[in-house]
């Protein structure tokens, strides 16, 4: 069903309502990113989020019935943005590892998202956390993706011989997570004194790859 | 001043009081380790800690006037235990890197401590967190210690040529932190399916060292 039969006025009014609803939702999610990043999921209340978003508590409940629903929407939103960026990068012919380095470069421009992810991932290791299953799936998927890429590199003779693929994939993810923590801890320092997340990931790739990705012959 | 002039009875009574006080303090810290690990510092109240330790709220305040004081005592306690273990290991002639692998092996036996450290470190990236300065100092000290060891290895011809020492030290710490997160996330899985934190750190050391530490000639 389309709405092409509606009068222009009704369509415009409805679009205005949708746009207003979307804008409110955006405001709520932006406020939640900052608060969850600072105080964690457990340390933030729905009232805190409503206050920071400048809406009433019942107004917030209209959009998100529970705090877990806010977190779920945030994580889904982050994943959608990340996957779109990664996909666009790969469509330009970038290999997975270089695309992950680019992801770290983008993360260095959005501390609030990195803070959210680091705080909530640490909390969500508890089995009863609402995002526990999400992080289990996310890590399993990411590690499987990297193991596949490592297997292809090994078969192409581009991997240091003898590496265990799962251990290598987990190390790569650990460097990304661990460097995000060190980078956040240094966020009050001048830019030149902060650790470089992308360069550190690149240094690990240099250790495990025999031929750097950008020098590999085109297939 | 010593207490050798006191009567044996008074001395025994005082020792009993001290022992009781120490025991209570231990109970409080044990309860706090579990709660901070599960819900983070912000997600835990002093009342939660008193309840889990089986003492009254005023009883808890007698030992620790604020929640930040509980956290500070916990982190100091963990550091004292870790440093004593590491020191004992090094006195047996173990090099720093192997001692860090042993630390990861010990951590695999104490999930509550690993959970506490991971959750609080993630929260403490915020400049206004009571443990922020503690973590800044801790990371600076650890990275400086590892950089010194890397420099000595480089001078002995035991390091892969061309590595940036600070980047390598930060990567090593990132692998320890990141693997703790992945290990915690998998803590409900059977032991064989959990990632091996110590082996993953060992795999990184194999990548950066030309001669494994245990094969190095005695000085």
Could you characterize the architecture of this molecule?
Two copies of one chain form a homodimer. The first copy, chain A, has 219 residues and is mostly helical. Chain A has two domains: 1-65, Homeodomain-like (Arc Repressor Mutant, subunit A, Orthogonal Bundle); 68-213, Orthogonal Bundle (Tetracycline Repressor, domain 2), CATH 1.10.357.10. Chain A contains nine helices and no strands. Chain A has helices at 8-39, 46-53, 57-63, 67-91, 96-107, 111-123, 132-155, 165-185, 197-208. In chain A, α1 (8-39) packs across α4. The longest helix of chain A is centred in the first third of the chain and has 32 residues, at 8-39. Chain A is elongated and about 60 Å long. The termini of chain A are far apart. Mean pLDDT of chain A is 87; it is low at 1-10. At the A-B interface, α1, α6, α7, α8 and α9 of A face α1, α6, α7, α8 and α9 of B. Chains A, B: Residues 45-64 bind DNA. Chains A, B: This is TetR/AcrR family transcriptional regulator. Chains A, B: Residues 22-82 form the HTH tetR-type domain. Chains A, B: Keywords: DNA-binding, Repressor, Transcription, Transcription regulation. Chains A, B: GO terms for molecular function: DNA binding.
In brief:
The structure is a homodimer of 219-residue chains. Chain A is mostly helical.
Order of helices and strands of chain A: HHHHHHHHH
Shape of chain A: elongated
- Average pLDDT of chain A: 87
Q: Can you tell me the CATH class of the largest domain in chain A?
A: Mainly Alpha
CATH superfamily caption of the largest domain in chain A: Tetracycline Repressor, domain 2
Oligomer: homodimer
Tally of DSSP β-strands of chain A: 0
Counting H and I runs of at least 4 residues, what is the number of helices of chain A?
Answer: 9
Domain count of chain A, please report it: 2
Largest sheet of chain A: none
Give the N-to-C terminal Cα separation of chain A: 46 Å
Classify the fold: give the CATH topology of the largest domain in chain A: Tetracycline Repressor, domain 2
Structural class of chain A: mainly alpha
State the CATH architecture of the largest domain in chain A: Orthogonal Bundle
The radius of gyration over CA of chain A amounts to 21 Å
């Amino acid at each position: 069903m389309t709405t092409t039969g509606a009068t222009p006025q009704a369509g415009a009014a409805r679009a205005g309502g949708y746009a207003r609803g979307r804008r409110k939702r955006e405001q709520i999610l932006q406020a939640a990113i900052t608060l969850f990043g600072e105080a964690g999921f457990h340390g933030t209340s729905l009232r805190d989020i409503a206050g920071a978003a400048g809406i009433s508590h019942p107004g917030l409940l209209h959009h998100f019935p529970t705090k877990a629903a806010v977190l779920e929407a945030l994580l889904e939103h982050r994943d959608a943005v990340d996957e779109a960026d990664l996909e666009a990068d790969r469509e330009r012919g970038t290999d997975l590892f270089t695309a992950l380095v680019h992801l770290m470069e983008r993360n260095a421009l959005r501390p609030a998202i990195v803070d959210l992810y680091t705080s909530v991932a640490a909390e969500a290791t508890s089995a009863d956390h609402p995002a526990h299953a999400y992080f289990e799936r996310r890590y399993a998927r990411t590690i499987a993706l990297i193991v596949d890429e490592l297997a292809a590199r090994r078969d192409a003779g581009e991997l240091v011989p003898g590496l265990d693929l799962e251990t290598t994939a987990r190390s790569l993810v650990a460097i990304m997570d661990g460097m995000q923590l060190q980078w956040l801890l240094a966020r009050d320092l001048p830019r030149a004194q902060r650790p470089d997340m992308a360069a550190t990931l690149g240094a690990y790739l240099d250790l495990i790859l025999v031929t750097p990705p950008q020098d590999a012959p085109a297939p």
